[in-house]
Amino acid sequence: MKQKLESLLLDAVTALKTQGLLAQELNPTINIERARDQLHGDFASNLSLMLAKSAKMNPRQLAEKIVDLLPADPAVIKVEIAGPGFINFFIDPKAQYQIISKIHEQGEQFGLSQVGAGKKVQVEFVSANPTGPLHVGHGRGAAYGSAVADLLAAVGFDVHREYYVNDAGRQMDILAVSIWLRYLEECGEVLTFPSNAYRGDYIRDIAANLHRQAGNEYRHPIDLVFEDIPADEPEGGNKDEHIDALIERAKTLLGAKEYRSIFQSGLNEILADIRQDLGEFGINYQEWFSERQLMDDGSIDEALKRLDAEGHLYVKEGATWFASSQLGDEKDRVVVRDNGQGTYFASDIAYHMNKLDRGFDQIINIWGADHHGYIPRVRAAMQALGADTEKLNVLLVQFAVLYRGDEQVQMSTRSGSFVTLRQLRNEVGQDAARFFYVMRKSEQHMDFDLKLATSKTNENPVFYVQYAHARVCSVLRQLDEKGLTRDIALGDESLGLLLEPQEINLVSSLIRYPEILEKAALQYEPHLLVNYLRELAAEFHSYYNAHQFIVDDEAMRNARLNLSCAVKQVLANGLNLLRINTPEAM
After folding, report:
1. Mean pLDDT by 10 residues, the chain (586 residues)
2. Residue 262 and residue 481: Cα distance in Å, rounded?
3. What CA–CA distance (Å, rounded) separates 57 from 66?
4. For residue 299, is it within any domain?
5. Are residues 469 and 566 in the same domain?
6. Do residues 538 and 484 share a domain?
7. Residue 54: which CATH number?
8. Exposed, middle or buried: residue 15 (CB in 10 Å: 0-12, 13-18, 19+)?
């Protein structure tokens, strides 16, 4: 219907050009929005306000001319001018019923489009350090990133899903030392575990596996391990100096080959667990991109050479700095430390250079909200590399806060005190986890209510939406039990009988689905689709509770069945896009 109205308005614009009221070269964008209040019609356009200056005419007077020049259309029963010049369209409800036949014809394809025109979009999401299992905080970024990627694909973008594996750097060294110290305990050594090491039970499991495979191959006397190591924080020392000294001691005692073996054993087990966890959560990536690859193939050196060639690097106090403050960042950033080691930011510059070199039209990074301050420096790096910074979109996700009753669950990967994503999925179910994670804007705070997510009541939003789908299936089963069949053709012929307020509201909502889908995709806001599904479900429940579907009047019965099945199809399409099941019985 929006396309039909756009066409009518374009015809009116052409007539205005013929009359000399608008320049021939003017090609306005026609904006059609659904009216917020049905008293003001079904759709509205601000075309006269947009063109008033060009036409040198009062917007309301121009609106009157546009309305006079609109071609007649049987679907439009009335056009009114409101306020300063808004053009409001009232649509014949019977004309809108065509959407039901369209939904039946297109089925799973209904709502999909090619607005993305095959543009290549990379969506990088989760990318949690492989230092432990994914927890419920990571789950929100996983569900949100997956939904954004799937919505973009649904409207015609060529989507590349990617996980950036931070398999280099200090945190991975802390992981390796944590595993080695637990391994030494498996060998019979007695030690005080560092306060800044990773302490979860999964570290013990990896260490036990390592000991079963390697025996005492990596064992060293604990006195030698801790000899002259700076004191830890509980003993009045510095926890960072303590753990960093242990990292260096491990590398010295073990040697490069044995240290790498321990490092790799931890990385492999945790990364395999993350892959499995996300796969079970319905998330699969086209690529798992290794940070270490950037070091091994010289990409970091190449990125720094490019920046240096353009005059963006300088040396100060033995370190190499990126002059990012000249490109919008709050201060300059170190890319190579005075000891010759590259920083995490240097790896990130190289990674974004790699993304650009792969030819993506759009780069979407989905980060935790705590990375907000990191955005300007990445934009500065892209600009310094000669890229259009408009290609980069950084979407921030607040971690979800988990509650058991009134008590908040504290989470820390380092201490090992956290609820894993897998535990959450096992407790509340896959569907509730994904639905709850995308119910709100990603940057908004979110409390995850376990009690609500597991309830089998209408208060649980995912249950409420799925129940609407199941209710239609129940009606179809009842039809079969009564020995009746659905006559789709008769139902389509009889749609004009659907004049109840709930029926008109449902048809209006079904028409909105493609618009909502496109808006949710282009604005990276899956919660818009969630809200739509909840509203559609509420309208159907109201309809179901107010009217009988399997009535004696064959024409009315089939018309109502066709409407109900159209609702079922749209609910299924939306839920499937969110990777949520569509049960036929509940």
Report:
1. 87 91 88 82 91 91 93 90 92 86 97 96 96 92 98 98 94 97 97 94 96 96 96 91 97 97 96 97 96 94 96 96 96 95 94 96 95 94 94 93 74 62 93 96 90 89 97 97 96 93 93 96 98 98 97 97 98 98 95
2. 64
3. 12
4. no
5. yes
6. yes
7. 3.30.1360.70
8. middle
